[in-house]
Structure formats: structure tokens, C-alpha cells
Amino acid sequence: MEVSATMRKLLSVIILLLCTVAPIVGVLLYEKFRTKDLTAEILARAPEKGNFLPRLLTFPVGEPVTIRIRNVDTVTHGFAIPALKVDGGKILAGHSTIVEFTPTQVGKFDFYCTSWCSEYHMQMRGVIEIVEKSP
Fold first, then answer.
1. Strand 86-91 relative to strand 56-60: parallel, antiparallel, unpaired?
2. Is the model's pLDDT at 35 over the cut of 50?
3. In a shared domain, residues 76 and 20
């Protein structure tokens, strides 16, 4: 039994699509399951490109917090919440880091970039607000 040229082309296209789409779907599913325990995500960009996003995060006191900081910029950034003793270190362009902590006191705490990223570096900051637990 001979396979027609049209069938061979169709089969080639299907195989090519599977080889192209399957890895992408696999990565997306992996990311979904790998990040299911994240409490929040922050995007890091130089202030003139958008700054940290979001710039305000709120969490209940006494509950574990996991934050992924994704550097979507072309320069190195850093992340720290000094009052909560959280230091995410340097985050290279295109990379991420995860910080974990359990806040023990209510209040507002500044977070900021710890790596010189632009002339507007000092504006690259945000606030973590720790509130009482809801009943």
C-alpha cells in the first residue's frame, strides 16, 4: 500500500506541530504546578519601564508567605525587605528568585531594589503590608 504525497505532507505537518507545541505545553504545565504554592509574584523592571509591579502587597500576620520576583528587564535587579529580614539577593536579567518568610508583626514594610539598575534606581520600591488575620 502506497502513501500519497499529500498524506506524507499532512503527516509531516502533524509531527512538526506536535514537536513544536508539546514542549511549550509541557513547560506551561510545569510552571503552573511549580508555582502553585506562591503567595504572590512581583515583576521587577527599572522605574522608567514600570517599576516593581505590584508595588503594594498585603498578607496576614503569622501566615507563611512565598513571593517570586521575576526580573523581566535587561539589567540586574535585587530585592530586600530589611525590616522583615528578607533578602532575595541579585536577580539577573530574565531570571527569578523566590523569597519565603512568615511575618510576625503587623505594619507596613518597604521593599526595594538592592542593585543599581538605572538613574532612577532609588525610586524602585514598594510596600508589604502585614495585617491582622480575618476571623
1. unpaired
2. no
3. no
**Do 68 and 18 fall within a single domain?**
no
For residue 1, what is the DSSP state? -
Number of neighbouring beta carbons within 10 Å of residue 117:
23
- Same structural domain for residues 51 and 78? yes
**Confidence band (pLDDT; 50, 70, 90) for 25?**
low
The answer to whether the CB of 51 falls within 8 A of the CB of 123 is yes
Residue 74's contacts (CB-CB under 8 Å, 6 or more residues apart) are 93
Question: With 50 as the cut, is the pLDDT of residue 106 above it?
Answer: yes
Cα 127 to Cα 65: distance, rounded to the nearest angstrom: 14
Q: What is the CATH number of the domain that holds 105?
A: 2.60.40.420
Kindly tell me the sign of the dihedral angle through the C-alpha atoms of 33, 34, 37, 41. negative
Q: Is 24's pLDDT higher than 80? A: no
Number of domains in the chain: 2
DSSP 13-64: HHHHHHHHHHHHHHHHHHHHHHTTT-SEEEEE--GGGT-SBSSEEEEETTS-
